[in-house]
Amino acid sequence: xxxxxxxxxxxxxxxxxxxxxxAFAAGAISATGFAPxxxxxxxxxxxxxxxxxxxxxxAMPKPVRRAFGLGWAFYFxxxxxxxxxxxxxxxxxxDVNLWQVPFASLLPAGVALFGALACxxxxxxxxxxxxxxxxxxxxxxxxxxxxxxxxTGFPWNLSAYGWGxxxxxxxxxxxxxxxxxxxLTILLGGSxxxxxxxxxxxxxxxxxxxxxxxxxxxxxxxxxxxxxxPGVRVRMVQPDIPQAEKYVRRLLLRNWQRLLAxxxxxxxxxxxxxxxxxxxxxxxxxxxxxxxxxxxxxxLLTARGQSLITGSDRVVRDDSAIxxxxxxxxxxxxxxxxLTYDKxxxxxxxxxxxxxxxxxxxxxNQLTVGSGFSxxxxxxxxxxxxxxxxxxxxxxxxxxxxxxxDPGGPRPGWLINVRRFLVRTLGGSAAAFSHRPNAxxxxxxxxxxxxxxRHQRDDxxxxxxxxxxxxxxxxxxxxxxxxxxxxxxxxxxxxxxxSDIFIFCRLRRFWLQALRSAKLILCVAP
Length: 526
Known about the structure:
Layout: H1 2-12, H2 16-30, H3 40-58, H4 63-82, H5 94-97, H6 106-124, H7 131-147, H8 167-170, H9 173-191, H10 201-223, E1 227-238, H11 252-264, E2 276-278, H12 292-302, E3 307-317, E4 322-331, E5 339-342, H13 356-359, E6 390-394, E7 414-418, H14 423-426, H15 430-446, E8 450-453, E9 469-477, H16 482-498, H17 508-524
Parallel strand pairs: 1-2, 1-9, 2-3, 6-7, 7-8
Antiparallel strand pairs: 3-4, 4-5
């Protein structure tokens, strides 16, 4: 206990640039609490360190200004590490876009202002004693809510997602939502700073509360019956096409034929034909609705009584402009007009450029096609035939806790999240792992089963379902092997049984990511 007290005194005594550097380092380390490492003690410890730094600022002149700087440094470090995948689109064509990589730091630097303002506001109400922990948690949770809503929102790596290693604890999001769980998580982390003053009652009480929430989650997971919808079988198709080859004109036909061939394969053994076939986000590589030949081939596919769900660009032309959308089409079984959904939360830099009027002047454009995508209106509920009505979500739309269903519309029977990631080209993406707790959380908050499709080439991304109902599903793709399937099944079983106990086994992902990053550097280097 004396060592903890001495460490707390040392942290509170840091001033000037030393305090800023230490805050940045604490924020960077706290990012390991999120996917892919999911080492949640680092996140809790990070918040405790930030409270101690704010204690030091409170005892110094101009505490509000000092708190602002410390908060910005902490969250800049957390976002810079936790959102490092933002640079991946710049690396698809490094000879053209590599010089733009430093500008990707503008996003975490700008969003860190929410945390900086929260720390400054907390300092206004700061006081000695445990009461400051509640003030800290309220302000930090409010800043997370604001960054999830203002300027189109960017709620990536909310504090609640730091519990991705514990499926049982994540179940509490069904009671209070992601932002409520974030508040309690920040409160628990901040309360650890009390140990530096040899005060243990507040952290002990919060640990007891989280033990109760964990028990609730264990009960919910153990006694929620999963029942398949009769007669519904889903096939998820993975064409395993590198991102750099997706829009190459001479390869479009090859890519298209691969999708069709995988979709038309006969079921294995005595299994029945799939009733629904799912392709990834932007699977076609061209606007499918503007290609009569592609529509004819889809009609032949759906004539067998199967529905096709696919992502594809949608282009609308009029006399004044051309408007593009990142869309999802649902082609009903037996033919008929497809149902369409347009993505309404677009990815910064990947699908649109924040502050485009300024950044375009220095040569920074979006990294998709044309002048970027336009946003859709809101979540939709689509008729999925014999399956329950479905609400589709495209890529990172699933991270928005408040916008996965339309509050004014009918309630969907299930959610589906189609995605694409640059793992084939870039050797690995933490964004892929980061989506997992986000998507699981959406299924719990909406109280609906959630089907996932990740455009990835590793077996961990075959798909998932959660909730009280589900569907039989199968996988079709060119990269899966028998050995890979056995390894994936063993890995899944291990995580399901022991993920709440053997948390540190998650560190295996760090070494996989490090090896993939080293491979990427060797490929990019001249």
